[in-house]
Each structure stands twice: as C-alpha cells, then as structure tokens.
Design brief:
Among the domains are: 73 residues; 98 residues, no CATH class. It is 34% helix and 6% strand. The chain contains eleven helices and five strands. Helix 2 packs across helix 3, helix 7 runs antiparallel to helix 11 and helix 8 runs antiparallel to helix 9. The chain is elongated.
Length: 385
Amino acid sequence: MSADIPTTNKPGPSQVSPADHVEQTEQADQIRTAMSVKNLLSPVNQAPTKVDDEPADASQALESSGHMEVDQVAKIDEPMEDLETTNAALTTEPVAAVEPTTPLNPNFEPTTPLNPNIRQEQDLISPLSAHSASDNDDSPTAAPDVPDSEREFICMNDEHSRCMTGQYTLPLSRKVISDHFGRNKGCTLLIKKWPMYCRKHYQRATYNKAQWQFKKLYLIDRQFGIIEQEFPGTTYNIQLKKSEEARLNQFARLLAADMTKEQAAEAIQPKSGKHFEASVPVLVELDHELGKNKTMQQAKHVVKVMQVMLQDKDTDLDQVPSIEFLPQIPGTNTTPKKTPKARATKSPKTPKTPKSTKSSKTPKDKKTPTSHVSAKGSIKKTQKA
C-alpha cells in the first residue's frame, strides 16, 4: 500500500533560495487578496463569483505562479470566512471620518432656525435696508470713486457701502434731521457731526414716505449717541414747534370754554398745506413727554413713543411730528442774552447860523420913480404906465 500512495517531493530548505521564497510568498499573498476583495464586493445572499483571470484551482495557481510550496497551496484551498462574519468584524472597527469630495452648496439656507428656542430681539428702531434707496445707476461706472479724504462729506444713505453718485461737495449735501434739533439755533451750531445725504440719495429716500419716517427716527436716535460721545452729560429741552404749540394751546382754551374734546379737536383739525400738522391726540400724547433738561434716555423714550404711534394705524400719524430736541451742552451758555449797547454821550448842539435876510421890498409909490436895476444888480422889467 505504501507503493500506491503518491509521494510529493517537498523541497527542503536547502533547495529553495531566499529570494525565490520571498517571491513565492508575495505571489500567494496577491492571490489571497484578490479573492478576499471579490468576496467582499459580492451581495450578501449571493455566493462570491470567480474572477476570470483567477486560477480555477490550486494546481492552476501553482502553474501560473511558478514554484510554490505545498503549504502555501494548502492555504489557498482553505475556504474563505463567512461573509456575514467578515461584515460583523468590519462594523465593530471604528470608522475614521472622511471629508466629502465635493464641497457643500454655499447658497444653502436652512428653512428652520438651528435652535427654535433662541429668539433674536429686534431693535425698536430699524433703519431702511441697504438697497432700499439705491438705484441702478449707483454703480462704480456711474461716477468716479473719490477717496474719503477728498470728499467734503460722507453720504449716510447706506452705512455699509460707498456713495457713487458723484455728489461729494457741501452745496450738494442735505442735513436730514437738523430741524428736529433746532437747526440754526445757538445750541445746535456747536454740534459739528450730522448725518448728511447727497441730494440724489435724499430725493430717492423721500420717495417712499412711510419708510423714510422710520429712517428719520433711526437717525435721530443715532444722533443722541453722537452728541453724548462729543459732549458727555448733554441734556435736552424737548418741545413742540411754535405752530404745533399754538394749536395745542388753542385746544386747551377751547376746553376751558366748555367745549367738548370732539368740538375742540374739530376746531383745530390739521389743515392741508405745505407743512405737516399732527392730529390732536398725537399732540396731547406728546405733551406728557415735553419738558426741559431731559436726559438722553428720556429723549430716546420719546422717539420710541413716536415710532409706536407711526406703527399704530389708529393714531392717523403718517409723519414724524414737528418736535425739537434742543441740546443743552454742559459748560456752555447756549442762549446768551444780548447786552445793550452803551449809548455815546451826545455833544451839545451848536446854534445854527441865521440865514441871510433878504432886503425887504419897499412898497411901490407911484410918485417915486422906480429904478431899473434891482438889488442883485439885474435889470428889472418896468411896466408901462
């Protein structure tokens, strides 16, 4: 029986060189790797398919790979591990984070806030949007750009972009809120920093009447901070303009004359004209906020009251009322009194020289011959007898 069993001439260590041994080991590893990858790429319920270029059995692998040890051939014939076991082993291993090969869409915006419990508080006074008063011709090609150092003023149409209308000189500027701070009064002339618009942007901004009123309130509220930064501790005398104050006083007199509020309000109702006149309820509401030496916070509160009335349609207020915030800068006499001029001492009047009296004419006497020469030496005309 020993003669029937085929014997395999297993090469000994002396018959295989180290270089051949390394080459054979690498070839066997390549075959096992190819078979493992093929099994992993196959579906779960499908048996792994054979690669076309792979050897069908161990003998073909031996022929294609050249010299190979019998131990290595036996390892090739061993069955592969179950695919589910392999997948379970792979899932237990930690997977490293991989960055996406394509960038995210930069224009993507979530439809819902990231945290719905967080609420963003909006300011009570909101300015216009950056492009609300801009136009198509406000582009770099419309007018040459001029550095700020060469501009006589900075247009406040948009605080986040540059004005490119080409109107950079003071004659083309507009002080948009100076009338609410006294305009040309002595207390206002001390303030040098004012929000200014170029003429073109001012015209565009006033086209939208409703939005412009909120923009004015924002600029007024902003101006309080500028004045406080330049003159700390400034107080304000808050008052209505003379025309509105006269209407409010007339309303009070009519009430004192036993007239009802409706009758008195009807008597002094706003008149359509060039200047805006607020309704009586608005004037009465603002009358509670008027006074002298008001702090900056009290002045800001009045601005908020006016904005609430603008937002409330029941008040019939569509413009900022004619109200003034006269700044009282500490350490300055904002309303100096005029000192009377000293009268110069008058010198005594010199008596006037008497005028030369003309020679009295003597009455004519028929008997007395008249001379043909007058007292001045001129020849008289004589009458014929």
